[in-house]
Amino acid sequence: MQFYTFDETTYPGIPDHVGPESKLTNRFCDPALAAQTYREHLDEWALCEDLGFDGALVNEHHFTYFNINPSCTVLAAALIMRTKRMKVGVIGHVLPLRHPIQTAEEFAQLDVLSGGRFIGGIVRGVPQEYVSFNVDPFTSRERFAESYEILTKCLTEELFDYQGKFYNLKAVSVWPRPLQNPFPIWMPAGSSETIEFAAERRIPIARVWNPTVVFQDAFEYYKEVAKERFGWEAGPEYCIGSRYIHVAETTEQAIAECRDAVMYVRRLTTFSRPVQVPAAVPGIQTDRSFDYRKRSRGAEMPPPGTPFEKLRESGFIVCGDPDYVTEWLAHDMQTAGYGHFLGMFRVGSNAHANVMKSKRLFAEHVMPRLRHINATFVTNEKGEHAARQPSAV
Is the peptide bond before 92 cis (omega within 30 degrees of 0)? Predict the structure, then answer.
């Protein structure tokens, strides 16, 4: 098992009286608190190198308190300069809403800047982002596929022209060239179409928050599609599980420290609602996507209003003493079959001191007991063992 830290850069200062019926515009944002939030996240991520984590990944979203990081490459660059050994990645650029050449240039630059430690990541984005960027959500998948094709050309070819539905490019030659070849790219995948897209291109996929059975179903479908449709074997190193997590000396203390932080996020959940439009946005999901999700009927994401105890039971938040967390994650990892764990230690509005302590406890008491699970190794020319890493580009 490979261990990474990964967090939504959640703004922690929305007043208690504000609920999901409010338009969460930037009138609630105190820039000084935002600056403090960035500093604390960078400290929490950088700590992980000393604790023996394999890497740290940064996310981005737009127009939301839930993640005040609109360009994940900015914080990734800052973290690269504070670390020397562990991998640093993004998961990732909202590819249909960015120019793919810019994404390729930034990925290559970060790979060179880090000395070949960078992991690129791509996502389709959420409905609210398409509304505010005024991009037709019904074109999301086509834009994503075309942008990915351009991205791979940028990272692998010396010079190319491209004629597509959305882009007409001439004489593209990206400087600098990335150090890593092949170049690693990860992506989240929850729909059948996205899982199939990733399997065809050998892109590792991530799942977050859902119950274990949903992780298992997605990863097994990915492996099935890879083998039966595209003729290759996908091991655990192509599967990534991510969960909110908090560790304390006792389970009672862990619950007390993170309960309010979890419910802060749940109270304000409007992730698929743009501030301008209170209704759901069509086009991002297809009928086939909804049919695929019926496979795990009864194990969906906990709906709004779910009490904390049910959130903990479902794995939306894994919190407890080191023994509880170890046992819960061991079952999750073995059942779902993933080889990378992304621990989301900064839960909602949780205090910085709690997060730093939780990571230390996790690294000392949990991580060593889970390293052997779903481990895949390669041997180098010196006879040394290293974890096998997937690569897509």
Answer: yes
CB 183 within 8 Å of CB 121:
no
**3-class secondary structure, 357:** helix
**Is a pLDDT exceeding 60 seen at residue 48?**
yes
DSSP code of 348?
T
CA distance 20 to 24: 8
Backbone angles phi, psi at 340, to 5 degrees: -130, 130
Whether 197 contacts 145, CB under 8 Å = yes
2-387 carries CATH number 3.20.20.30? yes
Burial 287-319 (b: 16+ CB within 10 A, else e): eeeeebbeebeebebbeeeeebeebbebbbbbb
Tens of pLDDT, residues 154-169: 999 999 999 999 999 9
Over residues 106-141, the pLDDT tens digits come to 999 999 999 999 999 999 998 888 988 999 999 999
Distance from CA of residue 34 to its chain's centroid?
A: 21
347 neighbors 275 (Cβ within 8 angstroms)? no
Q: Which residues pair with 89 in a beta bridge?
A: 57, 119
Tell me which H or E stretch contains 258. helix 251-267
54 neighbors 3 (Cβ within 8 angstroms): yes
Please tell me the distance from the alpha carbon of residue 318 to that of residue 326, in angstroms, as a whole number: 10
Beta bridge partners of 123: 94
pTM summary value: 0.93
Report which of 365, 103, 151 is spatially closest to residue 250, judged by C-alpha positions.
365
Structure tokens, 257: 């420290």
Please count the residues of the chain.
393
Q: Token pair of 85, please?
A: 């050994």
**134 φ/ψ sector (left φ>0, alpha ψ -120 to 50, else beta):** left
Q: Which residues pair with 121 in a beta bridge?
A: 186
Beta bridge partners of 377: 387
Both tokens of 3, joined, read 């261990």
Strands 340-344 and 2-7: parallel
In this structure, the number of other CB atoms found within 10 A of the CB of residue 150 comes to 23
Report the candidate in 188, 203, 38, 55 with the shortest Cα–Cα distance to residue 116: 55
Joined together, the tokens standing for residue 367 give 């991580």
